[in-house]
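Hypothesis: this fold can be encoded by more than one sequence.
Test: take the structure tokens below, design a sequence, compare later.
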């Protein structure tokens, strides 16, 4: 089931200039920001928030167009979404933060760390590639990633009213154990992605990958990130390749692989994933 956030959590709807970002805030101490990906929302981070809230101010936004954030017409390139997150931190009067990301959140996280390197003190990145970086062109050839180019008015009509069927494909095919994503979890996220405009916005996240690749190559050309990076791969997904990709853009990378998991680490192996992150951030 989808775990609730710890007691004391407050929600802020933060205007970043281009979007209204639904943001959960809980805990006390130095800040850690958690960015989700596709087929999840910020709700995925509740177990990690519970583990860190006693010694960290946990900030969990929904990315623009996803979850309970607004659905602007554009701005789904990750460089712009990184500025959303910087705007959230500004509104909360947070100068520096540790960063934890998964899936599309990884891409926003890299754009955030590259544009605001002095603001990100550590980065834990979980199981997804970065457009334009390292073996990106080879990764694109994987038949598992057909959804990167699945979008447009007709595709949206196909998915409308069938959001659960579409999302089940990701949970079933990209997991090591589909039963780890239980019925309550599937229903929770399917309902959120069935909200008006949600699937269109999600497809726009993928449509921006070409621009993201160009932006990332420019970021990488400016030099490697200096903050410590923990690159976590799932044994049955990116595994050690996660750290290999990050070494193209960061100079201080530690790799870790979570056993018995596919791509959905926070659902499939929450205890091991929380332990790995907790050992890196929040010290």
């Amino acid at each position: 089931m989808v775990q609730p956030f710890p007691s004391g959590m407050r929600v802020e709807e933060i205007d970043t200039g281009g979007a209204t970002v639904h943001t959960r805030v809980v805990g006390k101490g130095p800040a850690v920001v958690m960015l989700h990906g596709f087929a999840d929302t910020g709700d995925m981070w509740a177990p990690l928030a519970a583990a860190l809230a006693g010694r960290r101010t946990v900030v969990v936004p929904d990315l623009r167009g996803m979850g309970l954030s607004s659905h602007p017409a554009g701005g789904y390139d990750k460089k712009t979404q990184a500025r959303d997150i910087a705007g959230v931190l500004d509104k909360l009067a947070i100068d520096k933060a540790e960063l934890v990301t998964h899936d599309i959140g990884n891409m926003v996280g890299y754009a955030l760390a590259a544009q605001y390197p002095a603001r990100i003190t550590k980065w834990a990145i979980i199981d997804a590639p970065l457009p334009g970086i390292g073996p990106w062109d080879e990764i694109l050839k994987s038949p598992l990633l057909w959804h990167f180019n699945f979008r447009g008015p007709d595709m949206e009509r196909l998915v409308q009213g069938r959001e659960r069927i579409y999302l089940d494909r990701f949970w079933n095919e990209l997991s090591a154990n589909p039963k780890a994503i239980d019925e309550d979890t599937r229903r929770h996220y399917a309902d959120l992605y069935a909200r008006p405009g949600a699937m269109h916005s999600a497809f726009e996240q993928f449509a921006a990958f070409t621009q993201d690749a160009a932006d990332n190559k420019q970021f990488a050309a400016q030099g490697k990130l200096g903050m410590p990076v923990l690159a976590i791969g799932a044994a049955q997904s990116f595994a050690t390749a996660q750290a290999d990709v990050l070494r193209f853009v960061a100079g201080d990378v530690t790799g870790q692989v979570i056993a018995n998991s596919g791509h959905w680490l926070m659902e499939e192996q929450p205890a091991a994933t929380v332990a790995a992150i907790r050992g890196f951030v929040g010290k």
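The first strand starts at residue 10 and ends at 15. The longest helix spans residues 78-91.
Hypothesis status: open.
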